[in-house]
Design goal:
By secondary structure, the chain is of the alpha+beta class. The chain is about 50% helix and about 5% strand. Strand 1 and strand 2 form a beta hairpin. Helix 2 crosses helix 4, helix 5 packs parallel to helix 8 and helix 6 runs antiparallel to helix 8.
């Protein structure tokens, strides 16, 4: 695409103009309702994740270095810290368990687009509390951050993703969601918002090799932190390239080898990304591409009343968007973090417990002798027919053989639970919040948060709702 550097055109201009021109009254009702579910779900993930070791390390670092007490961290051991540090810690908590939502493509050349909620939500909580913005301003900034990062993930060449250059989009692209959300709340003008995107482009980072370690949620954490920093630097006058996304040696060229401008030009809010392709709110605390398989295994063992001691072997056939080169590349899990990316563990958990929740995704259960043994009975391999369907389709075909020679087969439902075509209801997401916040918040605080969140758009400020999620 030819670019006249003297004119206001191109995808960076398209995005900045759309963000500045969009106000709460422009948001469709469906987008607002989905956003409220995302806020409850993202906050739930922050509550549960705040108990994990990685956020605790960031809190220790924040205590050591100090700084202005501008915004609160959420969940366990909350503290007041600088804005970017609050976004950093909440971002780490939100992704520490891999329990946060996922936007998936329906295109054949890509599968997982990005985890779309935690980066803009972390920015909105930090900046929004600091400025005491209204809930309408909060929702507008959040939905716009969600919109921009999903559109970028749809437009960049597929080579950017796992199986190509190997970037983790929730870090590399998630920074733009946080930047836009923070910039909208700061009230940046056209030049400042363009500069913020330019700075975000050069602060972008995140590789996929860190799956199964604390460094994976660090990608999300840094995206939230750097997005707030980029917006704040822009507000103070720091500049950047005017066409940072599409310029030669810009983001799209450097990180993806190119992009499709038709995925952005004329498509901002048309459709809104939070509506289509939408997002998958997770019933399991692990990579979403494994969820259809877990639901399928649960259906199989319940239908035929399979007991753990009956199992001889389990064969899983699936696509390249699930197992290597996809994210579920760990063959045998020895700890909680590895389990999130391990088909063998996920099948073992369902056979042993008929569920795979926070209790199962724990070192104690993963390392138990029965779980370690059951994993050895599971194999996972690519099915050429499923691979041919493309990365935009997640399919699991499971064959279970018992010790007495019986064989059972089940294939996953294309409309998996929690996905945009079979979404969790607000009440189901509320139940997830209650489970996630157990041991962090009192029941009184939990119910107060859910009451306020249900009518979130009516809040005049964030003080009351922030009080409910600070332990």
């Amino acid at each position: 695409m030819a670019l006249d550097k003297t004119a206001k055109n191109g995808v960076t201009h398209e995005m900045v103009k759309f963000v500045l021109d969009t106000n709460y009254a422009d948001l469709p009702g469906d987008a607002i309702e989905i956003a409220k579910r995302c806020i409850v779900d993202g906050t739930a993930c922050m509550m549960a994740g705040s108990k994990e070791p990685a956020p605790d390390i960031l809190r220790k670092l924040a205590f050591q270095v100090g700084g202005a007490e501008e915004a609160r961290t959420l969940g366990k051991d909350n503290m007041r810290v600088p804005l970017h540090v609050a976004a950093q810690i909440n971002g780490m908590s939100g992704h520490a368990l891999d329990f946060d939502d996922t936007a998936l493509s329906e295109e054949k050349d890509r599968s997982v687009l990005i985890h779309p909620t935690v980066q803009p939500l972390s920015a909105c909580f930090a900046v929004g509390e600091h400025l005491n913005v209204s809930a309408e301003e909060f929702l507008t900034a959040f939905i716009l951050g969600f919109e921009v990062q999903v559109k970028i993930a749809e437009a960049i060449n597929a080579d950017h993703f796992t199986g190509g250059r190997g970037f983790h989009t929730s870090g590399t692209i998630g920074i733009f969601g946080a930047t836009i959300a923070a910039g909208k709340l700061f009230g940046l003008d056209y030049k400042q918002m363009s500069n913020a995107i330019g700075m975000a482009s050069t602060m972008s980072a995140g590789v996929g090799a860190n799956h199964g370690t604390m460094s994976k949620p660090l990608n999300m954490s840094r995206a939230a932190e750097n997005g707030v920093t980029a917006a704040r630097l822009a507000s103070l006058g720091m500049d950047g390239p005017a066409h940072a996304l599409e310029a030669g040696r810009g983001f799209f060229e450097a990180f993806g080898g190119g992009y499709d401008p038709t995925k952005i030009i004329g498509r901002m809010g048309n459709p809104w990304a939070i509506i289509y392709p939408g997002t998958s709110i997770k019933p399991y605390p692990s990579g979403v591409v494994g969820h259809p398989g877990m639901d399928t295994m649960r259906k199989l063992v319940e239908k035929h009343d399979i007991k753990p001691e009956d199992v001889e072997k389990i064969e899983v056939r699936t696509g390249a968007n699930v197992i290597t080169p996809g994210p579920l590349r760990i063959l045998h899990a020895n700890n909680e973090l590895e389990a999130k990316f391990c088909v063998a563990f996920q099948m073992a958990a369902i056979v042993l417990r008929r569920k795979a929740g926070l209790t199962e995704f724990s070192d104690a259960f993963v390392q138990s002798p029965e779980c370690q043994e059951m994993q050895t009975k599971v194999t996972a391999e690519l099915d050429p027919e499923i691979v041919e369907m493309g990365k935009g389709v997640i399919v699991a075909r499971i064959t279970l053989t018992t010790k007495d020679g019986r064989t059972y087969f089940e294939q996953s439902d294309p409309h998996y639970r929690g996905g945009p075509k079979n979404p969790l209801t607000y009440e189901e997401v509320s139940d997830k919040f209650r489970d996630a916040a157990a041991g962090v918040l009192s029941e009184e605080k939990m119910e107060a948060f859910l009451r306020l969140a249900r009518d979130f758009e009516t809040l005049s400020g964030l003080g009351d709702i922030m009080d409910t999620v600070s332990a």
